[in-house]
Write a structure and sequence with these properties.
CATH superfamily: Fido-like domain
Number of domains: 1
Shape: globular
Number of helices: 13
CATH class: Mainly Alpha
CATH architecture: Orthogonal Bundle
CATH topology: Fic-like fold
Largest sheet: 2 strands, antiparallel
Structural class: mainly alpha
Order of helices and strands: HHHHHHHEEHHHHHH
Radius of gyration: 18 Å
Length: 278
């Protein structure tokens, strides 16, 4: 078993990360309390508003010339959130469901090609980007395509395990699965888009179980934060892929916890304005 994936249940969370998680959880709980105090229609509309703001495909959002065309494509790809929430209902999300979610995630994008519909079938995949002078840079090579099914099954098994008493897993499990899927690169393209959708829906799924809520869609998304710091985003995942150690994982946790802090502050402000809106 690949070292990174084989160790996902044994990652040591450093004290500073643990304190940060606990602080974010307190803020998150206060946010949830305010949410559930909304009258049903207002709550439904607020969560719908959050979903409509979500970015599925960062690259197309940056490059799209037609705003209306992008809205049309985006509305199609948002179905992936509904499908993913449904898949998590029975706590046993499968590889077949992952394929279905991925297919919807890439729908209407430049990656919507038959060659990307199934798991990778070769080792031509590399992870990197183009530098400022147009030169390709390879950050790391993902695992052999022959290992993908085993590795993906291990990540999904970890994600499906239920522990409704350890509240830190509301964020930690989805963050670990996000980075692990980005590392495995199970498909030709659309892997980090898939990982983000899974992360946000798993946070919602765990929130419902641990706080006894019944949110139909995620109440917090980080995609816009990732877009604004995409260099760091790639860098932290690359650090995990190369070093595969606790230090790399804790840097990833801190990066995401800082963004959760920012989003909770933003959402709290949005919610206050929304509650006062007549």
């Amino acid at each position: 078993m690949d070292k990174l994936v084989g160790n996902i249940r044994n990652i040591k969370i450093y004290d500073n990360s643990m304190f940060h998680i606990e602080d974010v959880l307190k803020k998150y709980e206060e946010y949830l309390k305010t949410l559930i105090q909304l009258e049903p229609n207002k709550l439904k509309n607020f969560i719908k508003h959050l979903k409509n703001r979500e970015i599925i495909n960062n690259q197309e959002t940056e490059m799209e010339e037609s705003f209306m065309l992008e809205l049309f494509k985006l509305s199609q790809r948002k179905d992936s959130i509904d499908i993913t929430m449904k898949a998590f209902e029975d706590d046993s999300i499968t590889i077949d469901e992952i394929k279905k979610i991925h297919r919807v995630v890439i729908k209407g994008s430049s990656d919507d090609l038959e060659s990307n519909y199934d798991l990778r079938s070769d080792n031509k995949k590399w992870v990197g980007h183009y530098g400022t002078n147009g030169v390709q840079r390879i950050d790391y090579i993902p695992p052999d395509f022959n290992e993908i099914e085993e590795l993906l099954s291990e990540v999904l098994s970890y994600l499906n395990e239920q522990d409704n008493t350890n509240f830190i897993n509301i964020f930690i499990k989805p963050l670990i699965a996000h980075a692990a899927i980005a590392y495995i690169q199970p498909f030709g393209n659309g892997n980090t888009r898939l990982a983000r959708v899974l992360q946000h829906c798993k946070i919602c799924n765990s929130t419902n179980k641990m706080f006894n809520t019944d949110f139909t869609h995620p109440t917090i998304y980080l995609s816009r934060n990732y877009l604004l710091s995409r260099g760091q985003y790639r860098g932290f995942i690359t650090n995990i892929a190369i070093n595969k150690d606790d230090n790399a994982w804790n840097k990833w946790f801190e990066y995401n916890l800082n963004m959760l802090d920012e989003q909770l502050y933003f959402l709290d402000t949005q919610l206050k304005n929304y509650r006062n809106y007549k």
